[in-house]
Amino acid sequence: MKITTSFSNADIIAFCKATMDFNIVHSPEYMSFHKKEVVVPGMYLFSYLSSKLLSSCTTMVKSNTIEIFLGSLISAGEQVELLVDAAKETGTWFLSAINSKDCFRVGENRSSISFNDHPTLTSTQSHNRGLPVTSEQLSLFKSLLHDISKEWLDLLFTITYASQALFKAIASPLDEVESEINLLLDKSKNPDQVSPFYQWLKIEIPGERISLSLDKPIDYHISFNRESANKAYIANVECRQEDKLFYFSRYKLIAIPDRLIMRMAKSM
Prior knowledge:
The protein has one domain: Roll (Thiol Ester Dehydrase, Chain A). It is globular, with a radius of gyration of 18 Å. It contains 7 helices and 11 strands. It is of the alpha+beta class. Strands 1, 2, 3, 4, 5, 6, 7, 8, 9, 10 and 11 form an 11-stranded antiparallel beta sheet that branches.
């Protein structure tokens, strides 16, 4: 399957409004001031492509493992080829988002959706960062994707919304590692001017899908581990609502200099 498309500033603004993504590289005003095109959120690319795959492939709904590798950026207005390669012998669907290179690839590691008989992620000692969710957020999110079941729509939303929970944890640290990351990313205190970048994330989904309730917060149970001080960290995220499990996930966050991110963004 191949989709050739582009994402407008209006699309990106709507996606960021739905998922509460306040990263300035997704702001048309900020990026225009710096003569750069707006950066398409990596999770928007993933949600858009995976919803198309789910809407066209009935066997996909049984998949329980998602791995996303983010190696480069795609900008607003830029033509991108969204590809899916099926490895039927392993039940794996490989995802690509290509401009001059594959945004969903880091070295030989490719983004994928698959079924795994032996999940490995479990609960860790963590802090809960609950986030409210509204019908407006879900409606806006749904309008930007292809038609899929409510369970998968809710799942994709909770995966994307986890970014806001991670930033909430960093902004209000509750332990030593969170405080270290907070200091690293605080532009007023750290002269190096760096931002968090998801290099990799893995999500494992239980067999029973659940639906979101709008009158209850989504609970993100988060713990951080230091992989390399002031450079790379692992975030463990357990997503629940009313003690019902949406998924376990693990992220690798690396600190990227702001000047490098701006250099990677397409010039106007």
